[in-house]
Amino acid sequence: MKSWQDLKLTDDYLFSQIMREEDFCKLFLEMLMGIKIQKVVYLEAQKEVNLFPQSKGIRMDVYLEGDGEIYNIEMQTVRKTNLVKRMRYYHSAIDVDSLLRGNPYDQLKKSFVIFICNFDLCGDGFPVYESITTWKQNGKEIGDEQTKIVYNIGAFEKAQDPRLKALLRYLSTETVTDEARTLAEKVAAFKRHFPDGRPHMKGGLT
Fold first, then answer.
1. Would you say 90 and 111 are in contact if contact means Cβ atoms under 8 Å apart?
2. What is the pTM of this model?
């Protein structure tokens, strides 16, 4: 079993703990997706969703609501055959959990289910695989605003965006380039601030 100081960002416990820090979570997501996060409305790590007594519950590594968007981010270090259907189920759970009874369907937010893998799920060597729903006949987007994204951190060299390449390189090899320096420093500071390895037993970073 690894010690707290030896944990990497790809280790589930460290990832779920540090992603509770809003500044870190925003930086991580901005590097990952090449976007600017204007506002975090709600952030929760290890969020549990149990829709009905008889249905399968889920626990999400990181659940983040932005201004009009919902992000579920999962760190996946074990190859499983059911990951794609797991992503489908997470989308469904997010929708049911977020839409209040009686509200119209157009109040559903854009949702992104993101898996960060240390293996190549699709086997084609791409650093990013992104899926949206399209009509079969004309290839046009349906517009359900559901997006599935899978990252293959081992293919970091093929990433076009320099910040994404730096992030995937850091996740894969712990190599710190200039673009990933701030992120890596935040990880190191987080570990130092909580030497007992129990970060949110006494609050986050100040």
1. no
2. 0.90
- Collect all residues with Cβ–Cβ distance below 8 Å to 79 and sequence separation of at least 6: 117, 119, 121
Residue 141: phi and psi, rounded to 5, are: -65, 140
| Contact indicator for 156, 170 with CB cutoff of 8 Å | no
User: Angle, nearest 10°, between helix axes 181-193 and 162-173?
Assistant: 40
Residue 48's alpha-carbon distances to 20, 45, 63, 144, 202, in angstroms, are 15, 9, 10, 24, 21
Q: Count, in order, helices (H) and strands (E) of the chain.
A: 5, 6
CA distance 191 to 63: 22
Q: Which two tokens stand for residue 35?
A: 């976007």
pLDDT tens sequence for the chain (206 residues): 788 989 999 999 999 999 999 999 999 999 999 998 888 888 988 888 876 666 677 788 899 998 889 999 999 998 888 899 999 999 999 998 888 878 899 999 999 999 999 999 999 999 999 999 999 999 999 999 999 999 999 999 999 999 999 999 999 999 999 999 999 999 999 999 988 877 765 444 43
Contact status, residue 129 vs residue 149, Cβ threshold 8 Å: yes
